[in-house]
Structures are given as C-alpha cells and as structure tokens.
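This section describes the prediction task in plain terms. A model, or a person checking by hand, is given the sequence of a single protein chain and must write out its three-dimensional structure as a string of tokens. No templates, partner chains or ligands are provided. The sample shown here is typical of the held-out split.
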Amino acid sequence: MFKAVKLLFLYTETPLHVGSGSSLGVVDLPIQRERHTNLPMIQSSGIKGKLRSAFESNGLREQPDLMKAIFGPKSDNASEHAGALSPGDGRILLFPVRSLKGVFAWITCPLAISRFVRDLHLTGQQLTLSIDMSRVTDSNALVPNNCQLSIDNAIVLEEFTFAATKNPEVDRLAAWLADNALPSGDEYIFWRSRLKTNLAILSDDAFKDFCQFSTDIVARTKLDPVKKTVETGALWTEENLPNDTLLYTPLFACDPRTENKPKKKNGNGDLDAKEILDIVQEHLTNGHARLQLGGNETVGRGIVATRVFGSQGGTQNEQ
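The expected answer:
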C-alpha cells in the first residue's frame, strides 16, 4: 500500500519525443497518447527507467542496497521483490500554442485542470478554484485579468479566434503553477512571470485539437556517406511535444520491501516511504534538476527541467 505521494513536474526545454512505435498514419513516428482522450502522455515505465538510470550515475551506484530498495532488483533478480517507488504516467497540464499577440500562450482545459486538482489532493494539498467551467466554450476562453494575449477582448491562437473572458480564478491558477510547478531557479524568473499573463483556459475539445494538430513534426533523413543523398527508405517524420510544455506525474512510495531494509540517514529506524520520496527529491534537486527523456538524445531532444511538490499528510515539501 502506498504511504506517501508527491508530484514530479516536467517542463520541456527542448522538443520531447516519447514514441509509441511506427505508424501507418501521416506521421511515421508519433508520440504516446492516451487511448480515450488522445492527449499526449508519457508511460510510467519510461519515467521510472530514466530515474533509475539518472540516480545510478549520481552517487547511488555506490549504495546498491538503497538502489535496490527504491527501484527494485535488476532484471536478472526482478522476481525477488518490487521497488518502493512507483511513478505514475506523465499527464499534460499546459501546452504552448502560437499567439497573434504575446508570441505564445500556455493553454489548458477543464479536464486537465480537474485531473490535476484530483492528483494534487493525493499529496495532502488542495487547490480550490471557483471557476464556472460552463463559461468555457468552443468560442470562448478564460484568461487572467492582466492578460497579455488579448486584442479587443479576443485572443488569436494559430488561426482560431476565441472571445477572452477575464477571470480572477485564472490568476490564482497561473500564480500557483508559477510558484509551485515551474522550475524554481533564477533562470526561470521570466517564465514564471510570463505564465501569470499568458495562460488561457479553453474547452476540452479545443485543447484536445491543439494537442493533436499543433505538435512539432520533424522530417528526418539518413544520407548516403559517399553520395550525400538520402538513402532509399531513409526519410521519415517524427512527432515531438514542443518546448515549454508542462507535464506532471505522481510519485507513489511504500515502505521498502527488502528483507533487510536500509536505515534512515539519522540511523533511527528503517527507511520508510516518506524518506524514499525525500531521497528522490534530494537527488533531483542537487544532481538531476534536468533529465533527458524519450528518444533522440544525441540530437538534443527530451531535455526537461524537474520540480517536486508535496508530501502526504498536509506538510508541504517542495524544491
């Protein structure tokens, strides 16, 4: 049974390709998407594998018992027991879209917000928003009071125009995300400030359509080393989540399942679920504030900035 929960926020600094295999559609290599909503997502196995790989290279390799307790035994002994850490799937919360004014907007929708509020509740924290979601229609968007996107009470995203309705609750949501979800370093001062003026809540259908048709589609080739022409069959297209997308994943933890449990840092008792998450947060903060997720590592894809928020029981513990 899980005894502690935190949220891991992932903010894309370069395009992110977490692939779902080849496709017979227009895009040869699409990204992972939820079956029932078609929204982009990251499968939990990829997140856990990346965390394990990153932590092994950040000092925990010399602590095999701790690695085994957190992530479980390596594949040849995987039947011994499961690891104490269980990441969930990465869910999308904010998606960047080109705007006629303000360069780009971060968009979200009632579905994404409601999911996030539900998952945030697992950590012992609450975010109560008094937003009348019925006012979010296919032709109307909710924006902050100090919105920098609007022109004559309308916003233009890609080629679509939405009536802009100012709502103070959007200010509250933007401020909360800027203060608790975006990376906390000084290099993000500009971005935290910009989020408070460039956020828009669209309808679920509009958000789904932008997440489907406004991703980055990149053509890739392989050249013949002698002729320097495209080799036969070596031209393909890949889909990426664009820069400045915000996703999050719940991090669940239980007490270690090993027979001989590692001890707490202070030596007072066995390592427990809460300290498991504290160790994960410490290593993300000090050694891996940025991770590389997905494919195409050698061409700079998949660099994400991380931030951990929350602890079960109502005690806030964030980076």
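For orientation: The longest strand covers residues 230-240.
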